[in-house]
Design brief:
Elements (H helix, E strand, L loop, with lengths): L10 H8 L2 H8 L17 H6 L10 H10 L15 H12 L23 H19 L4 H4 L3 E5 L10 H7 L6 H10 L2 E6 L2 H13 L3 E3 L2 E3 L4 E6 L4 H18 L9 E10 L2 H18 L5 E10 L13 H4 L6 H6 L11 H31 L3 H5 L15 H12 L13 H36 L5 E7 L11 E7 L7
Parallel strand pairs: 1-2, 1-6, 2-5, 6-7
Antiparallel strand pairs: 3-4, 4-5, 7-9, 8-9
Helix pairs in contact: 1-18, 4-18, 6-9, 11-12, 15-18
């Protein structure tokens, strides 16, 4: 990833940029709309709209030239090839580059802890190792006595999923919360850990892994000579998180002979807290910290390392927290979907670029299909919505996108629709190029949206804790090239810490 060396953007700069009329259209218009016979591009699009109708660059789609410009170091952006890109587009892309937070990891790579992957993917192993190392340094490098004594950690599961979703999707969404991190914190750092998860299947699966390893397991608790690990299934909110932690500490402090839990400092961690779960954790920290300072019967949150994800699952009220600084900016579903894009990583390998090309082709071809459906609707005198109420295209195998004819035949079968009589169903290469260019431009704006979300959370939490001894920072914890798109952690720790990121 290229780091331009500029300082981090401010919320005001991000809001001003995202609210521009010329920028907002990329979030209010869906790619499918571009294939409508009645669509007319906004005037601000015309420079690239006309350019995208020209021939491919060096046998490659034109969007790749734009992407290379976005990822090129500053000294290469004056290259002759890039001058073919309309000036207004280059200006927009330059602004998008400058208004994104740097995502280069600042955490030192320690190397693998052991050769046993325990079923983890390389991505998951990278994340668990980095987070475990960071927590270790955080706990050992702090000068505040209260934090040096931390022995209790709550690992908050990443699977806070709506009940209306299918069981399959629930398990996929909870995949990251299978207690890999919890076990690493227990086994390597000798901590007492409470692992909370929304999925009872995941919780029981994690406990079963412990039994297979020979760990003592009773009432979802696994004990080793290094530490303890308790599994609990709970529908996580800020209230239930506080309650579950309190109940756990009442039990473990008694067994440890520690007596009342008023003196117990606690660290909260979350590896990919989906949607509003990130905010639930932070609200629990705020609530419990204030309760602990005014009463002697509560545990005290003294640190946190929270990595969020799945912005598309945010509750509406959690999309923008600092409304006083947002100047009326409203994040739509399109904003949240695009915030997850990592265009800097599209070309990190040949296979990654192949995946990117396929993903963009899917967007373009589905949009072209929408245009054919609109033409068919006009032919038979029905609105397009009436043709898709009972039939959905759904997910198609990647092989279907090998060629246009295969895609079209499959789509007609799925939708029970015939395009006979439309005159032509040939793939419109010019419109496909325009749709692809539009989608890539949207993706290049995605990191700006995520930067706003992260800074909004940072400033909101700092305001909430301004009168406490806790400090809040953003730390680039993971290497995005490892596949960890969401690599920024919200870190909370005492203000007088001498621990360095």
């Amino acid at each position: 990833m290229v780091d331009d060396g500029a300082g981090p953007p401010t919320i005001a700069q991000l809001v001003t940029f995202l609210k521009q009329d010329a920028i907002s259209t990329y979030f209010t218009i869906h790619p499918n709309e571009l294939s409508s016979p009645s669509f007319s591009p906004p005037s601000a699009w015309l420079p690239w709209w006309n350019w995208a109708s020209s021939e491919d660059a060096n046998g490659e789609p034109l969007w790749m030239l734009l992407w290379r410009y976005y990822t090129a170091p500053p000294y290469e952006r004056a290259a002759q090839d890039f001058k073919a890109i309309p000036m207004s587009v280059r200006v927009m892309v330059d602004a998008a580059r400058q208004l994104r937070l740097s995502r280069i990891s600042r955490v030192e790579e320690k190397g693998k802890h052991n050769g046993n992957t325990n079923g983890m993917s390389p991505k998951k192993m990278h994340e668990v190792e980095r987070m475990t190392d960071f927590v270790s340094e955080m706990l050992s490098g702090l000068s505040v006595d209260g934090l040096k004594r931390i022995q209790h950690v709550v690992d908050v599961g990443a699977g806070q999923v709506s009940a209306i979703l299918t069981t399959y999707y629930l398990l996929r969404a909870c995949e990251d919360s299978i207690a890999y991190l919890s076990r690493a914190l227990r086994d390597q750092l000798r901590l007492s850990v409470l692992a909370l998860d929304c999925s009872d299947v995941q919780t029981r699966g994690a406990a079963k892994k412990e039994q297979k390893k020979g760990h003592k397991s009773q009432d979802s608790e696994a004990v080793t000579s290094e530490g303890t690990l308790v599994y609990k299934t709970v529908n996580i909110t800020s209230e239930t998180l506080v309650r579950a932690t309190t109940e756990w500490l009442e039990r473990v402090t008694t067994s440890e002979g520690s007596g009342r839990n008023a003196e117990v400092p606690v660290l909260l961690v979350a590896l990919h807290a989906c949607g509003s779960l990130t905010l639930d954790i932070l609200r629990a920290i705020i609530k419990q910290y204030r309760a602990a300072t005014s009463a002697m019967d509560a545990w005290t949150p003294r640190g946190a390392v929270i990595v969020g994800c799945c912005y598309n699952m945010l509750h509406a009220e959690d999309r923008v927290l600092r409304t006083d600084a947002s100047d009326g900016l409203i994040l739509s579903a399109n904003h949240l979907q695009l915030a997850a894009q990592t265009p800097d990583q599209w070309g990190t390998s040949t296979s990654k670029m192949s995946e990117t090309k396929l993903a963009i082709r899917k967007v373009a071809w589905r949009a072209l299909l929408e245009g054919l459906l609109a033409q068919r609707a006009q032919t038979i005198g029905k609105p397009p919505s009436a043709l898709s109420d009972k039939k959905r295209l759904g997910r198609l195998n990647d092989s279907v996108y090998t060629n246009w004819d295969t895609f079209l035949v499959t789509a007609q079968q799925r939708l029970d629709a015939s395009f006979v009589g439309l005159g032509t169903t040939e793939r419109d290469s010019v419109l496909e190029s325009r749709i692809s260019m539009f989608h890539v431009l949207r993706c290049l704006l995605g990191p700006v949206v995520e930067s706003f979300i992260l800074l909004d959370r940072l400033e909101w939490l700092r305001n909430e804790l301004h009168d406490t001894d806790l400090r809040v920072d953003l730390v680039n914890l993971f290497d995005q090239a490892s596949g960890s798109g969401r690599n920024v952690a919200i870190v909370v720790k005492p203000a007088h810490s001498d621990c360095e990121e």
